[in-house]
Amino acid sequence: MELTVSFFGVLKEDVGAKQHTLTIDHDALTLHELVVLLKKQFPVLEAKLATIAYAVNDNFAQLDCVLTDGDQIALLPPVSGG
Amino acid sequence: MSQWITDQPINTDALLAETADDACGALIIFAGTVRNHNDGRPVHAMTYEAHVALAENVLKALEDEILARFAVQRCRIQHRIGRLELGEASVVIVVRGHHRDAAYQASRYAIDELKTRAPIWKEEHYADGDSRYLDGVPLQTGDNA
Question: Which ipTM did the prediction report?
Fold first, then answer.
């Protein structure tokens, strides 16, 4: 299955991309499992994970969320609106 | 773009027209504007970025919550994204109520909650050409609020 991950705010600079597509040899995996994969690919994320929130397909999501083909995942670092 | 996130200058008059209510004797307008310094560094401009779909849902829900939580009759919140120059409004919050006490409280609540709940980020641009994202606060998503 294919997943698209979007990085917002400073995370774009950290990983050097706004979006990243992963092709994974599973029918489903949890958001937590995806994060483990992303950490391997982008070690810079490791230190930031405690303060990152997640969204899947435009809804906030927790780490136990099950991802399926075509899902859009967003990594949301600490916010500074206003 | 939508009623909650815009890439154009915020039209406060339009928000006032939209919330017009003759039953309300108090009107509070809060605007956050780009200031020319932060942490002792001169700021030249600011770029705001949002997860637009999520931010719209968050701001709409915040408006609804404010109407339920405070004795106010109208609440509109609009946040701008893109590059803003000094003095331009990044956010405008309009609250109308029968009386001022609740309207002041609601306006303050709106901006305080927006700052922790809305998936919006700002990057400061400095006079020397450097820029950086502000550290920010961890996003409160409702499940972890």
Answer: 0.95
